[in-house]
């Protein structure tokens, strides 16, 4: 599965590093982020599920044992599947997304945002949840189109990527999730940026049709991957919690962009 990670990250426009300039030491950085008591957590509202494979076949290297004809046939399959890679990813992603939406379960992005907000609140922070359109571009320049920060709040931009991927067309599809975060102060200056990924072994599907027909369980696999990232995403941004602090006990709120 790890051989596919670079493809998944590239397809989702994930950045390989947070910034191009040196960052402060972790303790200094976490001291700054931990001092924030009011956060507006902005996340991509719509789940965008993708299904992708790397094309080709894992048995390409064995084609020679079948002689020249076998090699030519295998090479034809290899080239053909890579040529149709983009259209195959687009079609399957749309089909899988539609199947998952029909299940009626809570959207993955929303659930992750609520879990992360709850974790932030345990540290005494006030959290406001704001859904937005998916943020495009690299992490270092990530912005939410149409979003206007709420005065008095720092902003935590969160981009969620959820995928089933296979390194080639003969390998199993397995869940992969990624979280990108950008924390900004009240003046929209970037304080810290992190990326966290989780690739799991289960549930695995040898064929795309099996994945599509088992969309509810497949969605739950992605959900489990996101749940595992909540604590690493928190600790990566804010460090481990120190002594309890006084803070607002206000319930986490969810607001739309036009509800201001």
Question: Which SSEs are present, and which pair or pack?
Answer:
Elements: H1 5-11, H2 26-34, E1 38-44, E2 49-53, H3 67-83, H4 85-101, H5 108-121, E3 126-132, E4 154-166, E5 174-184, E6 190-199, H6 208-213, H7 215-238, E7 253-254
Helix pairs in contact: 5-7
Plain-language structure description:
The protein contains 7 helices and 7 strands; from the N terminus they run ααββαααββββααβ. The protein has helices spanning 5-11, 26-34, 67-83, 85-101, 108-121, 208-213, 215-238, and strands at 38-44, 49-53, 126-132, 154-166, 174-184, 190-199, 253-254. The chain is elongated and about 50 Å long. Residues 12-22, 57-81 and 243-260 have low confidence and may be disordered.
- Strand % is 15-25%
For the biggest sheet, the summary is:
7 strands, mixed
Which stretches are poorly predicted, pLDDT < 50 over at least 5 residues?
12-22, 57-81, 243-260
* Proportion in helices: 25-40%
Spell out the helices and strands N to C.
Answer: HHEEHHHEEEEHHE
What's the alpha carbon Rg, rounded to whole Å? 21 Å
Structural class: alpha/beta
Number of strands: 7
Individual helix count: 7
Distance between the first and last residues' Cα:
43 Å
Average pLDDT score: 78
Shape: elongated
Q: What would you say about this model in short?
A:
This protein is of the alpha/beta class. It contains 7 helices and 7 strands. Strands 1, 2, 3, 4, 5, 6 and 7 form a 7-stranded mixed beta sheet that branches.
Defining traits:
single chain; 260 residues; alpha/beta; seven-stranded mixed beta sheet; 21% strand; disordered C terminus
């Amino acid at each position: 599965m790890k051989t596919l990670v670079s493809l998944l990250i590239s397809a989702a426009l994930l950045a390989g590093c947070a910034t191009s300039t040196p960052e402060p030491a972790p303790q200094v950085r976490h001291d700054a982020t931990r001092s924030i008591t009011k956060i507006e957590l902005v996340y991509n509202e719509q789940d965008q599920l993708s299904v992708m494979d790397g094309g080709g076949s894992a048995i390409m290297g064995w084609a020679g044992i079948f002689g020249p004809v076998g090699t030519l046939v295998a090479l034809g399959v290899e080239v053909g599947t890579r040529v149709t890679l983009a259209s195959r990813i687009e079609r399957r992603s749309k089909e899988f997304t539609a199947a998952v939406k029909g299940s009626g379960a809570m959207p993955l992005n929303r659930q992750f945002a609520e879990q992360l907000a709850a974790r932030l609140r345990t540290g005494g922070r006030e959290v406001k949840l704001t859904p937005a359109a998916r943020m495009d571009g690299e992490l270092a320049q990530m912005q939410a189109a149409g979003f206007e920060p709420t005065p008095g709040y720092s902003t935590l931009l969160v981009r969620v990527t959820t995928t089933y991927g296979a390194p080639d067309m003969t390998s199993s599809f397995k869940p992969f999730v990624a979280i990108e975060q950008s924390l900004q102060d009240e003046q929209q200056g970037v304080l810290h940026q992190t990326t966290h990924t989780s690739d799991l072994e289960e549930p695995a599907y040898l064929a795309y049709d099996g994945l599509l027909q088992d969309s509810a369980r497949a969605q739950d696999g992605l959900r489990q991957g996101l749940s595992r990232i909540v604590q690493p995403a928190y600790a990566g941004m804010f460090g481990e919690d120190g002594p309890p602090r006084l803070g607002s006990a206000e319930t986490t709120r969810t607001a739309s962009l036009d509800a201001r």
